[in-house]
Amino acid sequence: MIPNRKLALFAAAASLSTTVTAAEETWSMPITSWGDPVIQGYWSNSTMVPLQRPEGLGTKEFFTPEEYREQLRLEFEEEYGETQAGTAADVHYQFDDYLMNKQADTITDNTRTSIIYDPPNGRYPALTEAALASREAYNAFRRDHQWERAQNRSQSERCLIWDQEGPPILPLGYNSTYQFMQTEHYVVIQLEMIHDVRIISLDGGDPSEGAIPQWLGNSRGHWEGDTLVVETTGYSGRTNMPGLRGIPMSHDARVTERFTRTDDMTVEYQFTVDDPTVWARPFSGSYPFQSIEGPMFEYACHEGNYGIVNILSGKRVQEHDAWKAKNGIKE
Fold first, then answer.
1. Which is it for the CA torsion 235, 156, 178, 15, positive or negative?
2. Less Cβ crowding at N or C end of the chain, within 10 Å?
3. How many CA atoms lie within 13 A of 271 on its CB side?
4. What pLDDT, in 10s, does the model give residues 116-141?
5. Cα distances (angstroms) measured from residue 243 to each of 65, 80, 161, 179
6. With contact defined as beta carbons under 8 Å apart, do 114 and 50 qualify?
7. Strand, helix or coil at 328?
8. Which residues contact 79 (CB under 8 A, 6 or more apart)?
């Protein structure tokens, strides 16, 4: 059975409205005291839409309303369907039991079949030979050395950075809460997951000028009408796109983001990634941020995080047992 709370969410998300309310007809962009559109507030990018389109859908960019409802039904049943009594799935907690997924109530109607819409197949472009070689070298290193020390484990496992933090900003799956703050000269984006903060200067300058390489790059922004346009370069060469460990964003990468407030509840987000060292061509994606009630909570990643200690100590035990077996040592 789907929990009652999830049934309510399913019903709300699946009811695609075809009417335009009076509020929507009369909505006007809120403006700051200095004249820029207001985008500050608490937002969630929680979504049911995958980053890459399932290959079987080809170039189908949108579901029909009926197809969308069926897709939601299948996904909810897969996640919250019947479970066998006494199994781990039967007793495992849900994120919303602890308010970790408070943004779930604001999943928006989004009939896209994938976040990526260009290339037309909705998938990553082809990787360059350099990128493929980088992934092969990374995988070879991981096979031989990932258990040796903490520094050889992934950055997210070490609570340093999450691949989807951006730019481009991509849905995380949980803890998908953001706080946008703005002044006349800066926009600040704080993420709940691993609590990173981007400080974006609105001077409209070239982000590559005098940039110190950073995991999240160096961002500079400007307003084009009601849209905040952010250009980012200066990546450190250690930030991966989701699903592409071992192929980091290169120093040549440039990401263009567009944030457009479309109503009281929505900021449309669009991005283009251009990294000729990694990709055969640029690619673009889009999805909405949905307004939610704050505040954000502390992401205390290291508290109770025994994973690395247990993984490395377990490997040391295996190595010690292998050494004893090799040397004929018995307990």
1. positive
2. C
3. 21
4. 999 999 999 999 999 999 999 999 99
5. 29, 25, 15, 26
6. yes
7. coil
8. none
Beta bridge partners of 329: none
Residue 229 has a pLDDT of 98
Residue 224 per-residue DSSP state? E
pLDDT of residue 19: 44
H-assigned helices in the chain:
4-14, 22-26, 65-80, 88-91, 129-145, 307-326
Q: Which of 19-33, 226-240, 288-302 has the highest mean pLDDT?
A: 226-240
111 and 53 Cβ atoms separated by less than 8 Å: no
Q: Copy the structure tokens of residue 194.
A: 């691993």
Look up residue 47 and give its amino acid: T
DSSP for 139-190, please give it.
Answer: HHHHHHHTTT-GGGS-TTTTTS--GGGSSSP---SS--EEEEEE-SSEEEEE
Cα 289 from Cα 54, distance rounded (Å): 23
Name the DSSP letter for residue 85: T
Rounded Cα–Cα distance for residues 107 and 109 (Å): 7
Q: Where do the structural domains in the chain lie, given as residue ranges? A: 4-291
Determine the pLDDT at residue 156.
84
Mean pLDDT of 251-275: 96
Q: Which residue has the tokens 């040397």?
A: 327
| Tokens 């400080």 sit on residue | 199
Q: What is the pLDDT of residue 209?
A: 82
3-state class (DSSP) for residue 258? strand
Tokens for 281, please give them.
């061509």
Would you state the structure tokens that stand for residue 56, as one six-digit string?
A: 């079987």
pLDDT band of residue 212 (cuts 50, 70, 90) is confident
Residue type, 9: L
Under a CB-based contact definition with an 8 Å cutoff, are residues 260 and 267 in contact? yes
Q: Is the separation of the CB atoms in 232 and 238 below 8 Å?
A: no
